[in-house]
Amino acid sequence: MNNLSIPRIFIMYFILFSFLLILSSCVSTDGAASITKTIVVDQKGHGNFKSIQAAINSIPDGNKKWIQIHVNQGIYREKVNIPMKKSFIVLQGEGVSKTSIEWNDRGDTMNCATFRVFANDFVARDIAFVNSFKQPSGGPYQVAEAALVGGDRNSFYRCSFIGYQDTLCDYLGRHFFSDCWIEGAVDYIFGSAQSMYKSCVLNSIGSGWLTANSKSNKSSPTGFVFKFCTIRASGKTYLGRPWNEWSTVVFYKTYMPANIVPEGWAAWGSSDQSKTTYVEEGCTGPGSSKSRRVSWLKKLSGEQLSHFTDNRFIGPDDWLSQQP
């Protein structure tokens, strides 16, 4: 009896150890998720689909496993929409100079964007989003979005957003933008999201306003934080104007060129600018002087500032490290 029980116990432990070994090999050591499937998009037919939207449509509603859509180089002239039911997608290009999604539309804030995502848990890397609508010389300018980002836990790495007015509708949800190029002139980063922009280039190609944040009430955790960014400007540029009176925008250790207007911020869409939270801390460059800034520019305590500049601003659940 005892002689037989020893090998059985040994076999049970061996099976359990093997199972744990296999399980650990499927999970990244840093806690990041793994890609379970890759779909290839290629215009010349050397992939699974010729269009990006067709690849997205092939993913089942309610998907719970990370699927990568690898988009081979080329200009994809299509409007792309990722609906709420198609989560856990990684959209991977081959570099912003090689892979782009381009369309020409304007006028309707919710529908004119070249690219729209409403799904949670989405990642885009190394791809350009372009709205090629040609604004009339001298205006009046029209809404012509390159992208509308409306899901929660959405992140973008080394992406470009190209437009003129309302280039990036940072609509709703928690978002992270890293090493991205965002180009426009009039309110070209706008919306009500809770977003951090890290090491991004903000390229103003005409006189106007860089941001138009629309935080709607005091208790909302939303706002835009620009950390270690670089601003470029070819015309007189304001850092932003308040779409709603609780508008919240923080620039931290960001380079500001001489084209930034001395006042920094413009009053618009708000009856009481004192309720806004506009912050500039540790910024550099000829446009960073605060000697002539608006009287309602805020000064935060160290603890208040760290709330915005730490990744916890976009959520204490550390969702960024859990993406593939």
UniProtKB/TrEMBL annotation:
<dbReference type="InterPro" id="IPR033131">
    <property type="entry name" value="Pectinesterase_Asp_AS"/>
</dbReference>
<keyword id="KW-0378">Hydrolase</keyword>
<dbReference type="GO" id="GO:0030599">
    <property type="term" value="F:pectinesterase activity"/>
</dbReference>
<dbReference type="GO" id="GO:0042545">
    <property type="term" value="P:cell wall modification"/>
</dbReference>
<keyword id="KW-0325">Glycoprotein</keyword>
<protein>
    <recommendedName>
        <fullName>Pectinesterase</fullName>
        <ecNumber>3.1.1.11</ecNumber>
    </recommendedName>
</protein>
<comment type="similarity">
    <text>Belongs to the pectinesterase family.</text>
</comment>
<comment type="pathway">
    <text>Glycan metabolism; pectin degradation; 2-dehydro-3-deoxy-D-gluconate from pectin: step 1/5.</text>
</comment>
<comment type="function">
    <text>Acts in the modification of cell walls via demethylesterification of cell wall pectin.</text>
</comment>
<feature type="active site">
    <location>
        <position position="187"/>
    </location>
</feature>
<dbReference type="Pfam" id="PF01095">
    <property type="entry name" value="Pectinesterase"/>
</dbReference>
<feature type="domain" description="Pectinesterase catalytic">
    <location>
        <begin position="39"/>
        <end position="315"/>
    </location>
</feature>
<keyword id="KW-0732">Signal</keyword>
<dbReference type="InterPro" id="IPR000070">
    <property type="entry name" value="Pectinesterase_cat"/>
</dbReference>
<dbReference type="InterPro" id="IPR012334">
    <property type="entry name" value="Pectin_lyas_fold"/>
</dbReference>
<dbReference type="GO" id="GO:0045490">
    <property type="term" value="P:pectin catabolic process"/>
</dbReference>
<keyword id="KW-0063">Aspartyl esterase</keyword>
<dbReference type="InterPro" id="IPR011050">
    <property type="entry name" value="Pectin_lyase_fold/virulence"/>
</dbReference>
<feature type="signal peptide">
    <location>
        <begin position="1"/>
        <end position="26"/>
    </location>
</feature>
